[in-house]
Structure prediction request, 369 residues.
Amino acid sequence: MSAAATDPLNIISTPNTSPTTCILSNITSRPALNGQYCQAVEFTGSRYTVVLFDAKNAAATIVNGTAAPQPQLLKVQPSSLSKASIIDQTKLSALVAIEVLKLYANHEKVLNFGRRVTPALLQGRISPKQMLGAIALSIGILSLFIGYIIGFTKLFLSFSLVSMLLMISSPDWLRGLQENKPMMHVVRTSIGNLGMRWKAMILQMTGYAVSDRMAAASLVVLVLWTVKLLITPAVTNLGTASSFRNQPQYDAEFMYKLGYEDGKSGDVFGASLPSDMLAKSSDTLEDLDYAYNNPPPPLRSKPNLGMGTLLSIFALFRFGRDLVTQPDGTLIRDVNLIMVKLRSYEPWRLGLIFMSLYRVVGALSSFFR
Prediction:
């Protein structure tokens, strides 16, 4: 039996592959299921058997360490399944993280930690939740202070790099937390599988498979490029501003009074002018070029083909590829079906696509300015 007959969408996990997260769609009998996340476990009788994913149950398993409840199984047609994109997987991880934070807010371990870090003078005056809130507020203020020193752009860049690495390795640390593994074991496993996860993300974003070395090299280049931007000092020209601030200021009334007194006493013009004003006049006015010069032409904007533009191009390519192809990879030739798929996308996803399109068009238009 061929692989297409046993798994036409290639979404069932094997010993060498991780389970693929999918999204339900086009279910008319139970519309409430559309948009839910699931994982396929088998394919029999032209239908997939999928396990519905519940963020609340997953969060309860992570926080409490208890066994997951009995999963809900469902049989669906292949046309009702689509592979979750990297944005969908990020959204799912965010949903689980939010539910985990909600449970941890009232967890006994967290409250005990709040009691331990509360100073003795404040014991009995503030609750553990208030103490943890004060710590979170202090961290936020410290982040703003660091952003003011190094620049909010660099702070956002470092936060984006850490978030990207955590997002890529999220399946490993989520599984480790679910199985109550030691934290160092979770960290080592996440770092060891980072190259494989990055390779899978490149395949999902672009549709092209790359070698392990190419994936590892691209990840190293991205990290080094980000670190270079973080350690590069910002270039500022403070010479003109500082020299202007150091110059003494004289108002018109003071200068008029000096000239009036020179006239009454019969002194030459400018005899009472301050020494710094005389030095400035002798340095600048004698060499002043009175000829009119046309202003220089405006500088051409340089083409902006940075990492953000490349990621936008990949996002547009992935969006267009998903829009005009069926789940089995065949090309859609019906324009009406393409429009139906386009209208089925969430508004936030269309907004991201339009932002990516705007960035790419802006970068390309800079070549013709």
